[in-house]
Design goal:
single chain; about 400 residues; alpha+beta; Cytochrome p450; four-stranded mixed β-sheet; three-stranded antiparallel β-sheet; 11 strands; binds protoporphyrin IX containing FE
């Protein structure tokens, strides 16, 4: 009897030349052939919509110290990096209940809808200024002119940060973003840890300055929350502020550049948006779905976890591919890979996660997206691409580093 030739197993491999330009075909392959994927790198990966949604809502741990010994954990230990390197493991994104519940409540009392909505006029004026600059030069790099500075300035103003060395801070947050990258490169890990320590110090100085200069801003509200009860330690306060600061801009930049790029590469959709501006809000949801600004989340099992006929053992690191889930044909239909700004269920995307860790800044990001992309499209009828996109080389926070346009 001759044996049937076996196809080689599909292994998630984001380190191929084509992945940065378009990772979605590879996600589709993994989702189809290995939806519950035990990766040789020592972690698991989920990519189907229903599985990813159930995982992020499951209440499983986000604390890295729970990862059992094995290749994944060893990579950190061998690099000499502590268990929860980012912001000393104190930011709410990296904490389980009851700490997460306490911190989330405190941050939510400061980061209110009122505070977010109050930013819209400032966002409009920042966008107008940025577009004036683009109009003057006839185009340029959309990331440098709009997509990066807008969210960076908005979150700095909301927090009421004192003037700091923005250039250095940008370099540091950029490096820290690599902590959410699936890397096992010891050099990168050590550089992340050093950036982490420096950010902690810089934000600590800002907090000390703010104590003597309280105002009507997010940082003051968090300081007051800290002083009111004994519910937020000084280090915890610094970690939450740093987290808001970083999450406030390193993600939204991808929504702005990714949304603009999606329209430029799909002129029929750009035309549709111009013809029906009432689709603006839904278009933002579709941009979030079509090209996820944050590709992955993660959870760590404390008990055996059942999914798709598999049992994932305790102590496993599970990568939840939000980006793959957002293109799942079983949920979004056979045209899931296409941009359709009038898609009815676009808002069901998982780009902001779900459950207890669901993004606190979603409303702010949505306003920034709506105003920036809406105005860009309205103001420049001749908007078009003016060269090749340069990618930032990140896997979890994949986005354009340079997006040349002409107007
Ligand atoms: C398009 C922009 C954004 C995207 C795609 C995004 C995505 C996400 C995702 C996927 C999570 C959940 C991670 C998980 O389940 O493990 C998250 C959490 C979080 N985001 Fe965002 N985010 C964005 C903008 C923002 C902004 C503007 C802020 C703040 C100003 C922010 C602050 C946070 C915080 C504090 C958390 C942690 C919440 C928790 O653990 O309870 N994000 N974000």
């Amino acid at each position: 009897m001759t044996e049937e030739p076996q196809n080689p197993p599909v292994i998630f491999n984001p380190f191929t030349p084509d992945f940065m330009e378009d990772p979605y075909p590879h996600y589709a392959e993994v989702r189809r052939h290995a939806p519950v994927h035990e990766h040789p790198g020592g972690f698991w990966m989920l990519s189907r919509y229903e599985d990813v949604l159930a995982l992020v809502r499951s209440g499983l741990s986000v604390e890295q110290r729970h990862v059992a010994p094995g290749p994944f954990r060893d990579a950190y230990t061998n690099a000499g990096v502590t268990d929860d390197p980012r912001l000393k493991g104190l930011a709410l994104l990296d904490r389980d209940p009851p700490d997460h519940t306490r911190l989330r409540k405190l941050v939510s009392t400061a980061f209110t809808m009122r505070a977010v909505n109050a930013m819209e006029p400032q966002i409009r004026s920042l966008v107008d200024d940025a577009l004036d600059g683009i109009a003057e030069t006839g185009g340029g790099d959309l990331v440098e002119a709009l997509a990066f500075p807008l969210p960076f300035t908005v979150i700095a103003r909301m927090l009421g940060m004192p003037p700091t060395d923005n250039k250095r801070l940008k370099e540091l947050t950029n490096m820290l973003m690599r902590s959410v990258e699936p890397t096992t490169d010891p050099e990168v890990m050590r550089a992340v840890e050093a950036a982490d320590a420096e950010i902690f110090e810089m934000v600590g100085e800002a907090v000390s300055w703010k104590r003597g200069n309280l105002g009507d801003d997010l940082l003051s509200a968090l300081i007051t929350a800290e002083e009111d009860g004994e519910s937020l330690s000084h280090d915890e306060l610094i970690a939450q502020v740093a987290m808001l600061y970083i999450a406030g801009h390193e993600t939204t930049v991808n929504l702005l550049s990714g949304g603009a790029l999606a329209l430029l590469r799909n002129p029929d959709q750009l035309e549709l948006l111009r013809a029906k501006p009432e689709l603006e809000q839904n278009a933002i949801e579709e941009f979030l779905r079509y090209d996820s600004p944050v590709h992955n989340s993660r959870r760590i099992t404390l008990e055996p976890y059942q999914v798709g006929g598999y049992e994932i053992p305790p102590g496993s690191f599970i990568l939840a591919s939000l980006a793959a889930a957002n293109h799942d044909e079983d949920f979004f239909g056979p045209d899931a890979a296409e941009l359709r700004i009038d898609r009815e269920n676009a808002r069901r995307h998982l780009s902001f996660g779900s459950g207890m860790h669901m993004c606190i800044g979603a409303a702010l990001a949505r306003i920034e997206g709506r105003v920036a992309i809406g105005e860009l499209v309205r103001r420049f009828p001749g908007l078009s691409l003016d060269g090749e996109v340069e990618w930032n080389g990140l896997l979890s926070l994949r986005g354009a580093a340079r997006l040349p346009v002409t107007v």
